[in-house]
Amino acid sequence: MAQPWKKAADTTPALAFNIGPPTPRGRAVIIYGPGGSGKTLLSCLIERVTGPVVFADRDDSLASLTSHLVDLDLSPQCVGREQLPDYNATIRFLESSALDPFPNVVIDTCTEVQNDAFKETLARTPTTENGQTVTSIESYGFGKGYRHLQETWLDFKYALTQLRQRGKNVILTAHDFVAKVPNPDGADYIRYEPALHQDGQISLRRMMRDWADDMVYIGFDVAATREGKEKHAKAKGAGTRTIYPVETATCMAKSRTLREAIPYEYGSEAFWRLLLNKNN
């Protein structure tokens, strides 16, 4: 007679685990900053380090850089906005076998993809729980629309993850945004963060920061000083820029490789060599 306090024999078949070195995967990098800071050109420069680049030009920015690309002998292949008219087209592009020859995939910008995700969310869930037609993300009721948005966004994140599993380096560019940061140790403050949605418990910004290997901010070097009794400070700068790969009080950032800020040098792939440990 079986004793009720004795554990029954485990009849589950033994699992075979393939234990070994980690499977190589592509690098996930988010580059954000203000317009004209050099996000797109910096993305293109990875070509010199790891090979050909295919560009999802959602922001229509690559054409304006043609002369720079020629001068720097860069030749990224481009899929323009007319071929990626909506959110689902972008997902299909990321899943396409047409990307097989390219070790590097750039999405410029994921801020524009997010705008499409808002529209797709309304199309996927056209009514509220009460059957009323929605006209904006706010129409669903407090916080509910952003939960729908997050579900939509997960398709994009999954497609990016699959690219990494295929060994592709995935580079996302984003516009910047001045965000208020809650500070449990003192007064709240503001800093630059990627222009991705964040509202209460739903944060595409935090989701993508956690997903990426690296998130770097490109900022113009500006010094603000107040002279005499002037009420407002005056900003001065020479047009130089810096890449910030480490979180500071002024910008959200992270990196698995880099620990110090790097001067942005026009036409230089030094950032990518340092980031990817490709010093040859």
Write the layout of secondary structure elements.
Elements: E1 28-33, H1 39-44, H2 47-50, E2 53-57, H3 66-71, E3 77-80, H4 87-95, E4 104-108, H5 110-124, H6 144-165, E5 169-181, E6 189-194, E7 198-199, E8 202-203, H7 204-211, E9 214-225, E10 234-244, E11 262-263, H8 270-275
Parallel strand pairs: 1-5, 1-9, 2-3, 2-4, 4-5
Antiparallel strand pairs: 5-6, 7-8, 9-10, 10-11
Structure notes:
The protein has helices at residues 39-44, 47-50, 66-71, 87-95, 110-124, 144-165, 204-211, 270-275, and strands at residues 28-33, 53-57, 77-80, 104-108, 169-181, 189-194, 198-199, 202-203, 214-225, 234-244, 262-263. The protein has 280 residues and is an alpha/beta fold. It is globular.
